[in-house]
Amino acid sequence: MMKDFVNLDPFSGEQLQDLIDRAIADKALFRQGKLQPTLERKTLAMIFEKPSLRTRVSFETAMTHLGGHAIYMTQGDIGLGKRESAEDTAAVLGRMCDAIMARTFSHEMVERLAAASPTPVINALTDYSHPCQAMADLMTAQEHFGPLQGRTLVFVGDGNNVARSLAQGCAALGMRFILAAPEGYELEQAFVDSLPGGCYSLVREPARAVKDADVLYTDTWVSMGQEKEGQKRKSDLSAFQINAELLRAAPSHAVVMHCLPAYKGCEITAEAFDAHAETIFAEAENRLHFQRTLLNVLIAEGGIR
Ligand code: CP
Ligand code: NVA
Q1: Residues near ligand 2 with C-beta < 6 Å?
Q2: Over 90: is that where the pLDDT of 197 sits?
Q3: CATH number assigned to the domain covering 131-283
Q4: 13-129+286-300 — its CATH code?
Q5: Closest residue (by CA) to atom 6 of ligand 1?
Q6: pLDDT the model gives residue 18
Q7: pTM of the predicted model, to two decimals?
Q8: 14-34 as b/e, with b when 16 or more CB fall inside 10 Å?
């Protein structure tokens, strides 16, 4: 039984596939008004060191749908690692609440919370990874294409937290993950070496990278916490934009995905965004559906088996 959801790599392809299949089934039940409120009187503690729209609203709404409750806390409220150590915070929250969700700068902070908490800990984005996002994205891709094995996802731009989780998810599900990034923005070699052989490649020219793409994915060039390097990042990544020209180099069936928030005119043009808005907002909605299933599995069922 896996208590926590901190990264995707501890899970097998079967475990991740099962979570996606269950999330799709639960979404249908929810829409029919038949999803059971399995988390009555349960509480999710939510810690945010960074801003959020989708993550906060989707977790909070998911708890409401399941009959439970979520508590929103910022760094200013609790002073994680300053007013109190990660270990003491986790020990207290773990005694009062039924799960902890944390969005932090350092990935180590979430790992320390998970190690110290008797209850499940969910990574809601760190500088290193964003596993809930990747799972909602892969769920959306499966709804669109059917079985994902053999499909190709091309991530265009900065090899960041979202790219890392997508690479791990694609690897587990038998997909190809191609990163189109300039020098200095690729994923670190130790991470690449940790992926199963053959599923990952780095292609420097975006047009060549997308030629067999089923999914073209992008994210901001300036992640939360990188604001000071914003100008340099925008100039270094300027040739890695999803736009009409890049879409012409991709197969006509390919869809565009974006985790949001989007900076139109930077990593994606407004035109490319609008043409694929249906898929992009379906991904955002699926944050709710995937995480509701995840909360149910971790809290009501005691973990991922
Ligand atoms: N995609 C995502 O995590 O959005 P928020 O930062 O708004 O939560
Ligand atoms: N890479 C982005 C994702 C936002 C959801 C960030 O970390 O800011």
Answers
A1: 125, 160-162, 219-220, 223-224, 259
A2: no
A3: 3.40.50.1370
A4: 3.40.50.1370
A5: 52
A6: 98
A7: 0.98
A8: eebbbbbebbbebbeebeeee
